[in-house]
Amino acid sequence: MAWKEDEEPTVDEAAKQLRQYEESLSSSLQACVSAVEKLSEKVHQLEENLSSSPPEPTSVQRPKENTWENHLPDHGVSPARLTLRKKNMPLKPFKYLLPETRFLHAGRLVYKFKIRYGSFKSASELDNTESTVKELEEAIRVILGNLDDLHPFSTDHFTVFPYLRKWERVSKMRFKHKNVHLSPYPYICIMYLELNSFQQNLSFGKEVHGDSYELVKRRNEMSESTEMEGNSEEEES
């Protein structure tokens, strides 16, 4: 029974309305308790089924071998492939004695390598042999493993001068491997090579005299600057 808003209910009417509210609330609570009890029974039954019959073991696929590989936009640079876990890292053939740029993908990073050579007048016997390729691959491995503390080092035939230079406009570069977006390493890895005759007494891992290192670095930077100016003139024309 309802009453008008402008009329005050009698005591009997108010008591009756209150009893109706209590009955409705009690009915709702009973429905909730019943639903909870049913859900609890289902959970208990599911636990018993799991304990009596353990799930069959699922087969785990072996992850693919970690590779350094790049799927890069066409910048006129041949992409390279480098396998990290193998002792010998298969790379595309080097343009031996010719300057070249390589992009290498490791993990979620893409590294830009610039390989430059010094005066190799007596290097004809090396050519682009398997041993030479292995030395260059090993040099790349050493550089990537020591990016925080680069020092010149030597292989059987080469003295390697590694250093980093800021990668200009790196924020505009976009790389992707399959469905994974990759981030470019913010520095270009410069790898300058001289024949070991340049430093006869240099042993593997031993730091080159600072004056020699700075001389090679300045000479290479001048070459890089000339190359960049030439590219700019071509773009303007």
From TrEMBL:
Q: Name one GO molecular function term.
A: DNA binding
Quote any Pfam family the record assigns: MAJIN
Give residue spans, biased composition: Acidic residues.
Answer: 224-237
UniProt GO BP: homologous chromosome pairing at meiosis; meiotic attachment of telomere to nuclear envelope
Region annotation (Disordered) maps to 43-75, 217-237
Superkingdom in the source lineage: Eukaryota
Question: Locations of Polar residues compositional bias?
Answer: 48-61
Give the GO cellular component terms, alphabetically: nuclear inner membrane
Q: Compositional bias (Basic and acidic residues) spans?
A: 62-74
The protein in question is named Membrane-anchored junction protein
Q: What is the lineage of its organism?
A: Eukaryota, Metazoa, Chordata, Craniata, Vertebrata
